[in-house]
């Protein structure tokens, strides 16, 4: 992996591991408990996070398979990543895009299945990322559905901000379950 982004990888991995350690302590009922019909369970939030990462990488893999001419992401990354970070810090509810909503993940899951799938996806992501040619680093490779095109660094920052946003959601779900 490009060593410039190794720190981002470590931060994301640590945050995912911390979330998984919280989920591991939950029994099956709590992990799959939904506060209401229109809200997700902790397990569903985890599946959403995994699906976003998986589909994002699928997009990058497909895009790079055509050997495209890539534009520099230097200026656009700052604005787009900043916009995503600001959005993630404010909890303005936005409906998940159809490709990553509850229609595409199970209604219920065991913790072991969540951990296994997420670990498999993360290993695949880092293996692929480590093989991206050096001249592609800093180029507009990834396309976020709202913010637009950004670099792999921007994608990793998005993953982290997205995880933090949904971590707050998980905290609220667990708080409601306890009350």
Can you offer a commentary on this structure?
- The protein is mainly α and 179 residues long.
- It has one domain (3-178): dinb family like domain (Four Helix Bundle (Hemerythrin (Met), subunit A)), CATH 1.20.120.
- 61% of the residues lie in helices and 3% in strands.
- It has six helices and two strands, in the order αααααββα.
- The protein has helices at residues 6-24, 28-31, 42-65, 74-89, 111-130, 152-178, and strands at residues 142-144, 148-150.
- It has a two-stranded antiparallel ribbon.
- α3 runs antiparallel to α6 (152-178).
- The protein is globular and about 50 Å long.
- The mean pLDDT is 88.
Can you tell me the CATH superfamily? dinb family like domain
Structure annotation, total helices: 6
| Number of E-type strands | 2
CATH class type: Mainly Alpha
Residues in β-strands, percent: under 5%
Count structural domains: 1
The Rg value, from CA coordinates, equals 17 Å
CATH topology: Four Helix Bundle (Hemerythrin (Met), subunit A)
Order of helices and strands: HHHHHEEH
Structural class: mainly alpha
Major beta-sheet overview: 2 strands, antiparallel
Uncertain parts: none
Using the alpha-carbon principal axes, give the shape.
Answer: globular
- The average pLDDT is 88
Distance between the termini: 44 Å
State the helical fraction.
55-70%
**Which strand order do you get reading across the main beta sheet?**
1-2
Task: Using brief descriptors, characterize the structure shown.
single chain, 179 residues, mainly alpha, Four Helix Bundle (Hemerythrin (Met), subunit A), two-stranded antiparallel sheet, 61% helix, globular
